Amino acid sequence: MDRKKDMKKYNFDELVDRTNTNSLKYDAREQVFGTMDVLPLWVADMDFKTPDFVMDALRKRLEHEVLAYTFRGDSYSDAILNWLEQRHNWKIEKEWLSFSPGVVAGLTLAIETYSKVGDEVILQPPVYFPFFDSIKGTGRKLVENPLKLENGRYTFDLEDLKQKITPNTKMLLLCNPQNPGGTVWTREELEELATICLENNVLIISDEIHSDLVFDGHKHIPLPTISDEIADNCVVLMSGSKTFNIAGLTTSFVVIPNKRLLVRYNRSLQVPHLHMGNIFGSLALETAYRNGAGWVDQMVDYLQENYRFLETFLKENVPQIVPMKPEATYLIWLDFSACKLTDDELNDQLINAGVGLNRGVQFGTQGQGYMRINIACPRTTLEQALIRIQQAFA
After folding, report:
1. Which of 198, 177, 197 is closest to 88 using CA atoms?
2. Phi-psi map region of 207: left, alpha, beta (phi>0 left; psi -120 to 50 alpha)
């Protein structure tokens, strides 16, 4: 996984027709927006081709014409261990690893494993909206600890957190890096948050799916690397799905340093027989982690250029729409509040302009007046979307 050895130049400007592939992003536009005539920049997947080395590995596996039961061997685990150490300076033990069909599935399973109906679970909105369903849908009580907006960046409201914790509070769901704001939490921020949770016996479930998509000047800090005590009080959910555009293969992994917590999670995973995974998901993740460093570096560079293009375009043409400068992720939080529209009016105006974005209120009431745009697309697609927004709001 030596980045210097991977000198191939990848083309992220290439347009890929994703229609008629049962693509949620493209083929469900009628159901989501009421029309197929929108540029879809909503669902958190990329319009870039899945890397060639991943596709080649999948094609080679298909040459063996038996797709029966398999297991994840040592080479799979080793690929994860090597990736985490080289990309995030995180040395983990193979015995800490477990599986989940997806990060949200693993998060929901963790809620059911480590709490009971009626227990309180803390969420920090605005945040990835399936988390709300994971809490409410399992019969737990949602407690909001909203993030604070300071100098154009989200931060934790630790005083509010301390006031919200009760003896019935069992866990906190952390989004690291943050979605939709793009905040990369610093070591100091994480330590302060985790210390409060430790002191109050609140388990942290940390979604770190965007950890590979960190921009220049920032560094992802895996929560367990803060201290052994914090590592003993958290469950980390990760995946290559966002990084390598392989979300359709439903393969994520879970890192649980605490053996007691790991045993409980694995029991919950195995009872409904969710632990097996699938042949191609496991192969794709292993291959991506073994060969993908150079591809990721180039892709993140392209995302940063896309953001700079978006920021400049809006500043010059539609200055009342203000993007939150991301520290990570390809999901940009756009502040439309100066447009003085209701959320329904804002959504309708964008759809009428031919652009499909995520509504801010999906991420919590704190998202009123915001929309989320996905910039993981060729720059020509992004430019076309921005021109449509300009025509609608200028």
Report:
1. 177
2. beta
Closest CA relative to residue 52, chosen from 294, 377, 214:
294
Please write down the HEC assignment for all residues of the chain.
Answer: CCHHHCCCCCCCCCCCCCCCCCCHHHHCHHHHHCCCCCEECCCCCCCCCCCHHHHHHHHHHHCCCCCCCCCCCHHHHHHHHHHHHHHHCCCCCHHHEEEECCHHHHHHHHHHHHCCCCCEEEECCCCCCHHHHHHHCCCCEEEECCCEEECCEEECCHHHHHHHCCCCEEEEEEECCCCCCCCCCCHHHHHHHHHHHHHCCCEEEEECCCCCCECCCCCCCCHHHCCHHHHCCEEEEEECHHHHCCHHHCCEEEECCCHHHHHHHHHHHHCCCCCCCCHHHHHHHHHHHHHCHHHHHHHHHHHHHHHHHHHHHHHHHCCCCEECCCCECCEEEEECHHHCCCHHHHHHHHHHHCEECEEHHHHCHHHCCEEEEECCCCHHHHHHHHHHHHHHHC
pLDDT of residue 233: 98
For the entire predicted model, the pTM comes to 0.96
Amino acid (one-letter) located at 208? E
Instruction: State pLDDT tens for residues 346-382.
Output: 999 999 999 999 999 999 999 999 999 999 999 999 9
Instruction: List pLDDT tens digits, range 25-43.
Output: 999 999 999 999 999 999 9
Q: Give Cα separations from 22 to 25, 40, 280, 353 (angstroms).
A: 9, 14, 18, 24
- Domains of the chain in start order, with CATH, are 3-51+293-393 (3.90.1150.10), 57-291 (3.40.640.10)
b/e map of 161-174 (b: 16 or more CB within 10 Å)? Answer: beeebeeebbbbbb
Look at residues 104, 147, 141, 152 and name the one whose alpha carbon lies nearest to residue 127: 147
